[in-house]
Amino acid sequence: MEKKFNLAKEIIIGFFLAAIICAIICVAINFYLVKMPDSESANTINHAISGFMSGGISAIISTVITAKKIMNQRG
């Protein structure tokens, strides 16, 4: 018997996997690349940069995971 494909479930799974990877990337960026700044404004900019990078990567990861599941279901 063939399993029914649930797109909402796959999107949620992809989101959580990407969020975990995003958190790890954000920690690595803030710990290794961006050192503790001298001012609050520099700290804000550093967090914005790491959030932008990890958010973009997580969006790509969740899209790839969901697209892969859709392609596997169709073919």
Describe how the helices and strands are arranged:
Blueprint: H1 7-33, H2 40-74
Helix pairs in contact: 1-2
Can you offer a commentary on this structure?
The protein is rod-shaped. The chain is built from 2 helices and no strands. Helix 1 runs antiparallel to helix 2. With 75 residues, the chain is an all-alpha fold. The protein starts with 6 loop residues before the first helix and ends with a helix. The model has no long low-confidence stretch (mean pLDDT 78). 83% of the residues lie in helices and 0% in strands.
Q: Round the mean pLDDT to the nearest integer and report it.
A: 78
Number of strands: 0
End-to-end separation in angstroms reads: 16 Å
Residues in helices, as a percent range: over 70%
> How do the SSEs run, as a string of H and E?
HH
- Largest β sheet strand count, sense and barrel closure: none
Radius of gyration: 17 Å
